[in-house]
Specification:
The protein has a domain of about 240 residues: NAD(P)-binding Rossmann-like Domain (Rossmann fold, 3-Layer(aba) Sandwich). With about 350 residues, it is an alpha/beta fold. The protein has 13 helices and twelve strands.
């Protein structure tokens, strides 16, 4: 008897590869990973797990309908988990077209292919099948000093990235209500942890600090985000997929609101604990005696949302999910991972990204 199979799209990206590793370590499932391998997706992130038996890898685009149809028919998955997305707000400002292609058109093709595949299933196979679409809290827009995003918060996306993810969420909802496709949607807060491409705040600041480079903080640095350790996000996704109600959406947040300045300061302290400034030649060469001295305020991102905060009460109350890591514990694990995996950092950046500033309107 063959193993139950899940198709994981975007499984070579940051959250996707952590999800693949988590599922392989905690279940007997077989996974098929579909990934386009854009700049932020890398086979290095799946090193040691792709074996062709429990984890197969296929390079391709979720917007390639023929390929998606073929994969569904060949592997007969019980679930499709969609991580595939262009996800960096700054890059969506520079070039929104790729975001429309993957996040909106790609999600449509995936949902429609899943619909036709599901309609051909019968009996228990049809009853078991699920699609989980992974989304973001950025679809909700921005908050003032008080309040949180709930599943009932109206959508008000403010960046091209957020707008394409919002459109994808609406398509997922429509496919439930129009066709009956068994879809669950999750909206997460800011993730951090291993295998995150160094354009994002935590790895960017961490690697810059180690090299004595400036730590560029947008605007006044008081923009607030709710931080979620990626492993906790993965457990939340599995919970929503296996226990969530069809047609529902679940917010997944860590309950760790921090300003960007607080995050960067905490990172500096965590790096100091592992690599003291006094022993770092790169810091001395930069004429600095502490990592915090590298913090540099730069022009703000256009349309920068001020505050996000997630109310994860629904998934806690209905499904029993809880994050297992505090912000401090997750950050300590993250810093340790990057220090031990500098070769990965160099490999994924090579020829792709030099940690330059993105998302400026000239």
């Amino acid at each position: 008897m063959s193993r139950p199979t899940w198709l994981v799209t975007g499984g070579a990206g940051f959250i996707g590869c952590n999800f693949v590793r988590h599922v392989l370590a905690t279940t007997d499932l077989r996974l098929v990973v579909l990934d386009k391998l854009t700049y932020a997706g890398s086979l290095e992130s799946l090193d040691g797990v792709v074996d062709g038996e429990r984890c197969a890898f296929v390079r391709g685009d979720i917007a390639d309908r023929t390929l998606v149809d073929q994969l569904l028919e060949a592997w007969q998955p019980e679930a499709v988990v969609n991580f595939a997305a262009e996800s960096h707000v700054d890059r969506s400002i520079d070039g929104p077209r790729a975001f429309v292609h993957t996040n909106l058109v790609g999600t449509f093709e995936l949902l429609d292919a899943a619909r036709l595949y599901w309609q051909r299933l019968a009996g228990e196979a049809r009853q078991r099948f699920r699609v989980l679409h992974v989304s973001t809290d950025e679809v909700y827009g921005t908050l003032g000093e008080k309040g949180t995003f709930s599943e009932e918060t109206p959508y008000a996306p403010n960046s091209p990235y957020a707008a394409t993810k919002a459109g994808a969420d609406h398509l997922a909802r429509a496919y439930v209500h129009t066709y009956g496709l068994p879809v669950v949607v999750t909206n997460c807060s800011n993730n951090y942890g291993p295998y995150q491409f160094p354009e994002k705040l935590v790895p960017l600041m961490l690697l810059n600090a180690l090299e004595g480079r400036p730590l560029p903080v947008y605007g006044d640095g008081l923009n607030v985000r709710d931080w979620l350790y990626v492993e906790d996000h993965c457990t939340g996704i599995v919970t929503a997929l296996t226990r969530g109600r069809i047609g529902e959406k679940y917010n997944i947040g860590g309950g760790n609101e921090r300003t960007n300045l607080q995050v960067v300061g905490a990172l500096c302290d965590a790096v100091e604990a592992r690599v003291p400034a006094a022993s770092n030649p790169s810091l001395r060469a930069a004429g600095r005696t502490s990592y915090r001295e590298l913090i540099t305020h730069v022009a703000d991102r256009p349309g920068h949302d001020r505050r996000y905060a997630i109310d994860a009460g629904k998934i806690r109350a209905e499904l029993g999910w809880e994050p297992a890591h505090s912000f401090e514990a997750g950050l300590e694990r993250t810093v340790g991972w990057y220090l031990e995996h500098r070769a990965w950092c160099e490999a994924v950046q090579a020829g792709r990204y030099q940690r330059e500033r993105l998302g400026q309107i000239n």
